[in-house]
Probable guanine deaminase (Cladophialophora yegresii CBS 114405), 942 residues
Amino acid sequence: MTQKRIYFGRFISTPRPDELLIRTGAVLVDRRDGRGVIEKVNWSVNGPNDAVSKLGVEAPVITTKETGFFFPGFIDTHIHAPQYPNVGIFGKSTLLDWLTTYTFPLESSLGNPKSPMYHDSSSPPDPLARAKAVYNRVISKTLSHGTTTASYYATIHVETTNLLAELAFKIGQRAYIGRVCMDRPETCPDYYRDESTEQTIANTKASIEFCKDLDPTGERLAHIITPRFAPSCLPETLSQLGTLAKKDDLRIQTHISENLNEIKLVKEMYPEHESYAGVYDHHGLLTPRTILAHAVHLSKEEMALVKARNAKISHCPASNSALGSGFCPVRELLDVGIDVGLGTDVSGGYSPSILDAVRNACIVSRHVGYLAGGNSRCNLSVADGLWLATMGGAKVVGMEGRLGGFEEGMLWDVQEIVLGDVDEFGDVNETGVDIFGWEDWENRVAKWVWNGDDRNVRRVWVGGRLVHERK
Amino acid sequence: MTQKRIYFGRFISTPRPDELLIRTGAVLVDRRDGRGVIEKVNWSVNGPNDAVSKLGVEAPVITTKETGFFFPGFIDTHIHAPQYPNVGIFGKSTLLDWLTTYTFPLESSLGNPKSPMYHDSSSPPDPLARAKAVYNRVISKTLSHGTTTASYYATIHVETTNLLAELAFKIGQRAYIGRVCMDRPETCPDYYRDESTEQTIANTKASIEFCKDLDPTGERLAHIITPRFAPSCLPETLSQLGTLAKKDDLRIQTHISENLNEIKLVKEMYPEHESYAGVYDHHGLLTPRTILAHAVHLSKEEMALVKARNAKISHCPASNSALGSGFCPVRELLDVGIDVGLGTDVSGGYSPSILDAVRNACIVSRHVGYLAGGNSRCNLSVADGLWLATMGGAKVVGMEGRLGGFEEGMLWDVQEIVLGDVDEFGDVNETGVDIFGWEDWENRVAKWVWNGDDRNVRRVWVGGRLVHERK
């Protein structure tokens, strides 16, 4: 019985795009099997005691503050854990020079003592210690911003990748962990590359096994097959990764059509294929379990192909803006019927916060609308953005119906949000969000989206377990 | 002697665009006449004691943390104080419907008990109490984000405008206070409009006098003539405001070319003038003391005219993105030789933070570059953005040489920044910025710009007076 909890207060969620559902009530969560499933909900209770009596269970009651609400945990569908120390460091680079200037040196330093990042360093290289500090940090940081599920890229190193899996599992974030596959000499530096298709596959299998040992159910943690992107892999590697994913029914993640020069490069490297999406399709990598990051410049034919394969898209607006990649037409992707979620794309994206991704998604959609001659249909509303961050993300990571809402049978992956109340003298508890008192709840949510940060995230649960609490 | 202070530690500033100047040293500030002028600087001292001996003055020494630095206070060249409660509340609106839906009701509620904002309210209207809470809040909020100087729009109400002046002066933010002039019946609602040119001018004069009484020097506080924008004023009003500004050598602020429909409206309302900038020029409002907010869509001819008159531009990137107004070509404006600063444009802009404006200026410049076919010259660097926020802003508000740097003779309007150091376990004092230790100071500043917030602002001084300290 002590493994049950009742949550009482205000619950806000986005069951459909552009729909903000605001309810007061109580939710009963069962943590007995470690899954944290919502067993019962009741939207007509008046208080904690009433909740206990109406749900018919004697369990501890956890209530939100009057100024706060429960909201589904955010799902980051695309984040590079080892790049976290580089957030904000990208100068004026664009994708391809950004990779060689900033990214490969940092990623390699988490597994390779000969990484160029150690050249100027006075202390002896200790890649695994660095990885530990970085991964501990990125997991607690994203949790503190309300990210309950993350689809991570690690590095090419098995040990480092497994460390990320271990830490995420221990700290309690729901995670998909990808060992990065890159073995094509023309595009990958000598200091940061798998040596051959055989090595790529063997190393990937080692990390798959490690993740399976940690969580045999695969619900809280699983490996995700991760060819970095078409240009960085040998064609044979792409094929074998496709086969491996099929055999074990694994998720796949990669990048697509982020940048115009990248698309040109793919055309040059894969002249036999009709399109970038076609390359992945040919190698068995375009599946309902595939997360394609970016997809800024897909042709109509590629969109149709992605839709036909039921592959998913991770929209990473902050990254696309920071690296000058272009404007992703999210409304068009949704209209085609493609599932879209949000990604921070740390550190192409400069922020570890999915709330920031919601903001940037809203902003970029207004740019798309402006460029389409003032077409406001392109605009994403606050509720659209929050839907992408929760329900959309759940579809993208293949957890539809289990994550993103407060319905019976769903998992308790939830963040508790608090806002700041301004008093008559203009004083307030410091957060980014100031509520004057006359705003309705729809507008309070808008204020949270546009000025909120980790200070508004009071508590975070994953699978019913409290994994973050703000001191 | 106790009116002198020595500041010791790391000083970072941007003397020229794209140049980050990082120095260690000491600065002596004289507060005797209440101005807080930098009397002496020394960039070759080794510690607090050495600072005292090399500067030759026995004065208290204030030092930065090892993980921090002094940085010039930010200058917000365009912010609507009464709109602060609406940050984040704009839905899918664009400029003209945003004004009538969100903005006029809120602004009027700070002076008019019959404002539509009170229609649904159960408590009796108390406009001045509301104004007091809002203005206290916006001043302390912007100070907490490092804004030491702000050019404010208030409302049309004299009493409310004067209250803003009084509070800014008392709390200690350097401020230009504009009573908003709007008296054209076609575009201004009955509940929020000056009745005639005579009333507009009389009310403006009342507020000018009030500000002069508060600060006869005009250095810490001054009135700024504020015709809302060309469509909201009678032509006769524009002319008389131009005359008034000239007579008293006052600053002027208004809006220009923010939105395509607005530009069309100006063309319809002022068919006799060649351009939007031409309207202001004709009425004597395009002067070296004029701040033009937005300027997203200026023609080449208008840019040349603005340059010829030496009028200034306040770039408000967050607002332009949020309201889908377009992409301001900042590099082009700078290349023409126009002085540009940054504005939050609260609440068209959703954030009270100029650091956020720096980020958005960098992002929008990348959009401009992308749309110009990948022209990286358009890109603003982090140092460019910080320059706009400090030195650029100083030019825009007519305080060049007095604000924006650490040279002798300048005023001590300064923010002390602290960053978070990640330890070997990945733990850190919570701010938005995580420093792992291997980053050089240029990259640390980049990390601050991209992920910093008010938590990184430890102390803020205006004219040598400590006006904000983070608990």
Remarks:
- The mean pLDDT of chain A is 96.
- Chain A touches chain B through 65 residues (CB under 8 Å).
